[in-house]
Amino acid sequence: MSIGTKAARVGGDQRHMMDFVLPWLDFGGGPSEEIFIRFGVGERVFFERLHSFASDNSFTGPENIRLKVLDVCRRRGAVVGSDHRE
Question: Model's pTM, two decimal places?
Answer without folding.
Answer: 0.77
